[in-house]
Each structure stands twice: as C-alpha cells, then as structure tokens.
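Subject: Interface between my chains keeps coming out wrong

I've been trying for a while to get a sensible model of this assembly. When I model each chain on its own everything looks fine, but I need the whole thing in one frame so I can look at the contacts. Pasting all components below, labels as-is. Any help appreciated, I'm running out of ideas.
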Amino acid sequence: MAGGIGSRFWPLSKDNMPKQFLDILGTGKSFIRATFERFLPLVPAEHFIVVTNAAYKQLVLEHLPELKEDQVLCEPMRRNTAPCIAYATYHILSKSPEAAIAVTPADHLVTNTVEFARIIGCGLDYVEQNRNALMTIGIRPSRPETGYGYIEVEQESTGIVPVKNFKEKPDLETAKRFVAAGNFFWNSGIFLWSSNAIMNAFRNYLPDMAALFDKGRADFGTPNEQQFINRQFEHCENISIDYGVMERSDSRYTIAADFGWSDIGTWGSLYTHAAHDPAGNAISGRALPVDTSNSVINIEPGYQAIVEGLDHCLVALRDKSLLVCRLDDEQQIKHWVEKL
Amino acid sequence: MAGGIGSRFWPLSKDNMPKQFLDILGTGKSFIRATFERFLPLVPAEHFIVVTNAAYKQLVLEHLPELKEDQVLCEPMRRNTAPCIAYATYHILSKSPEAAIAVTPADHLVTNTVEFARIIGCGLDYVEQNRNALMTIGIRPSRPETGYGYIEVEQESTGIVPVKNFKEKPDLETAKRFVAAGNFFWNSGIFLWSSNAIMNAFRNYLPDMAALFDKGRADFGTPNEQQFINRQFEHCENISIDYGVMERSDSRYTIAADFGWSDIGTWGSLYTHAAHDPAGNAISGRALPVDTSNSVINIEPGYQAIVEGLDHCLVALRDKSLLVCRLDDEQQIKHWVEKL
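Reply #2:
Try treating it as a single job with all components included. I did that and got this:
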C-alpha cells in the first residue's frame, strides 16, 4: 500500500512527493525501497503488487525498477485501506487463486530485517495452513505510545495467538496500563492471510464492497481492469481494513513481533528514531545548533542553517518551504499548510 | 562609501551580496539606489563617486546605471573609512580642486528626503563659505539608542553649531541621560566639507596617510590611479574618519537634523522600521505566523514558510541559508556564521 500523501511531514512530504518516496532518516533508501528489500527474501520480485495513486505510478517504478508496469495498481482516488486491499486481492486472485498474501504499508521503518523475515515467514506458513486465519503483526510495545492502536490478547504470550480485541489509540494513562499488563501489542498495520480468508471476510463483513468488485471479476487481470477500477472505485465505502474486517472477524490472530518497528508517522517519532547530538538534537543536513536542544533540524542538501535559542522545536526546510514549530504542536501541521 | 560586507544581516547579506545592494525593507530599491536618488536633487549624476571593493564594481554599475565606470573607485581590500575617504578626496581633487564634498554611507535609511535635501543643502552652503569646517550631520535622537555614537554640543540647539565632543556608543543609562539632556545627537556618519578642509585635516591629523597618498598625486585622475592604489592602499592605517580626523579636529560642526534616519545596522533596527502585523511581527515574503509575536520573518521570494510558537525571534531565509535565532542575540550572528 503506497497511496498515502503524508502531509504530516510537510515540507518534506507533499502531494507530489509523499513520505513513502522519501529517505527521511537518511538511510540512503526511501521507505518504499526499504519495504521492498525487506520482503525480497520471502517474495520473488515478480510477485509484488503495489497499490498507489495513479499520480505516483512513475515514482513507484523509479524506486522499484525490478517491477513491471502491470505490478503497479492505480487507484483513481484515495479510499482508505479496505478498498485498496480489495482491489489488490481481486487482482491477485485473477492470477493465483491459492496465494498467501502479505499486506504492508510502504512507509514504515524496520531495523531488524532478519527477525522481520523470520516473523513474516512464520506467519505466512500459518495462514497457508489455516486458510481462514486473518493475521495482524503485533509489535511488543517498548513505551506507552498514544499514537498507535493496540491489539489485546488473552494473556501475556509469544508466538501466534488469537486476538481478543482491537483498541483504538489510547490516552497516556490507558497506554501505560496496556504496556504494564503485557498482553497488549501495537497494531502494525501489516496483515497476512490466504486469498481464501480475505475473500470470505470481504463477503461476510463488507458485502457491498465485495459485490461491487465481483461485477468486475471478468475484467481483473485483463486490459479492462483499469477501466473497471476507474469507473467503480469511487463507489467503494471509505473504510479501513481494521474497522471493516478485522474488528468484525472471529478468526483473527496476531504474532508477537519485536523487529524494531515504527510507522515514523510524525516528526516526533522521527525524533525518537534518529541519532542525537549531546544536546538531544536530531540534525539532518548542514546545520549549526546554538543553545538549542531536543529539537529536530532537517535541512535540504545544498542549504545551510543556523538555529539558536530553541528547545523541543522542529525546523524543516525542503523544496522551497520552511517550517518552524514546536514539536508538541505538530498535529496542527496539516491545518497550517491548508491556511498557508 | 559602498565597500561594507554587512555580515550582521546574514543570510540576506553575504560577502557576494552586501547590505547596500539589498532591499531589506521591501521598498523596491536597494540602499545604494535610494542613497543615490536622495542626493540627486543636489548633485548631478556625473559628480557622484562611489568607493567600493573591486569585487562589487559591477554590482554598483548595475544599481546605478547612470554612472560611468570611472566614477566607481575600487579598493583592493577593506581599510575603514579614513583611507576610503582619502582615496576619494585625492581623486576628486585631481578633477575639481575647489569641490564641496558630501560623504555618505550607501546603506542607510532616510524617510523624509525633502527634509534631507534641505539639510544637506544648508550644510553644503556652510562648508563652501567656511572652508575649514568639517561638518557631521547630527540626528535628533528619538530614543536612547545604544547602537549609535553621539555628538555632544554646548547646549540644546537647532541649526549649525560647533561640536563639543564625540561620544562612543553609550550604555543604556548613559543613552537615556543623553536623550534627556537635549544637547546630544546621533552621529549619522554623513560628513560635509570642502576639499580644502578635509585635505588640511588629513595633513594635520593623519600625516602618514596624507604622505602615502601624496606619492600618487600625479597618478590620481589618470589611467595609473588604480595601479597606484593597488600597490599602496594596503599600507594605509586601518582607522575610521571619526577617530582619525573628527575627534582630533578643532573646526568641527554639526547640523541638527530630523529626516527619519536609521543605519538599519541590525535586524532589530529593521524590526523597528518595518510594518508590523497585529501580533507585532515584521513579515517579508510568503509566511504564515501561528502563535508567533514580535518577530522578524524574512523569506526569499519564491519560498514559503510556516512559523509557529516563537516570540521576539528572527527567521530569515535567503540564498540557500536559514537563520533562526532570538532577536536579542543577533550581535552573535557574525560569530555563528564563522562557526558554520
């Protein structure tokens, strides 16, 4: 899934260059490239399917030159994760009715790719043998994060266990309780299932959406697929796979994982994962901090900056746009950008 | 005098684009252009002489296309105001031994050019009739500014009066006392004198410098002038006209002026003279202030900025360089730039 626009990282991410195509952490690879390489030990290149907005098709092919053009599915507009996944599922089914499928956002960070491959491998084995199982990767929480949804299981556990409940983003007190209890995981948004399991789930829990895609059944995998999608996609309900399917299912599992994961969804999470100078600043690019602490300074290559007298702030300069703000207020960025 | 490099306005001013060539206030004219136009009612274009660094000669001619190339005198290196004025004086003498001369920095602001022309006209009349007088324009102080030198006269007065003392930049208490006393003026750095008066002053108070320039007497005003300057200029003492001449003279006068003057020597003085939004911000360029007050935001055309959560700060973006700092700390800018 690579269709997001990521306005929370303005000015680094913009409509024409969303987060999945950026190398925000300075690793030398964009998020989508790193995601592709993370799955490559498990999945041959010709089995990848990228769902993105039509506007980003060329960007995807530039970042993943191993893919052929017909491996990039184009949404005509944004419609949340359930329609995105339905689109890919129907496409995959037309090629490979028995597929085991891994669904992943294209803009997350994983630091231990060996452990990642092991966990995903275990999970795929499980969903191939248990052909009704819908599996979420659950991340063992390292802090009471309020920016993630949580997965509750029956008791403190390792390995693959049934999901008891999905919990929306909690407040800090609740998050602390979750972490202390031991039977809660972060919801990574990475899913594993067989084509059979997810197809049945769409039929059971999102029957209108299934009926809509069924009308194009004969078109998927043919030259008519795009035309069908362009006509019908806008009629899909705007709903996430979590709300539409996972919360309603009675055959859902999680696998407890600990492979150094973050969705890097905010400047604050970038701050958490970046290297810091002795004053606690995360600096990228040519910048001189003076009497400045606990701040993120992200300066475009070719530019230089002096930043003095700030604490717990963000200074980001990219693509002829500058943002200076308090890190605590970053949830407002999207609003400010609209005003600007 | 247009040879300064103005590092205090980094990143707007830089070695390759010093303050006199900038339009920091957004008036549509650079400081040097506005200075030229301010004197034009009094001085025909062909009588202007600009002394600048060799590196800025083309910039001067671009900003003042009315001038011929030989009206731009080029210093091979920076040597303060006394050598700069000596160079121009010897050049002028070679063309016009009886000239009355106005000396002015090229990077000041004047808001009432009618009153300016009246005052300068009065002063030039005086120095033409009193051919030993060295005259400084004294600005009636509107606030206890600690960033300027002061001129003390015998008693509260208008018109042209003898100077009692020059005072260096005072501390705030002293500045308040000066303003309350009424017989102190800001030293504008604008001088008026006859060629006879300034030549005698160099001979009397800076005899080594006069001797040095006398060696090239035959070269001034000829094609050999530049070669002479290139060889000899570095041997001049690095001294200001204030220390070298004015403080030592017994024939010095000031004329009390009130024509809306500022040297715009700091971001703080720019803040004072710019228009403010209701939150007290002085904004230039496309910038959205959010919960930001009493700050200077100066964004290069073609760029955009969001600035949130700052008070009494400076945000300046120009020429691929960004400065964010507290306005109170701007005296350190030069130091930071060296570190960067």
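Reply #3:
Confirming on my end. The mean pLDDT of chain A is 93.
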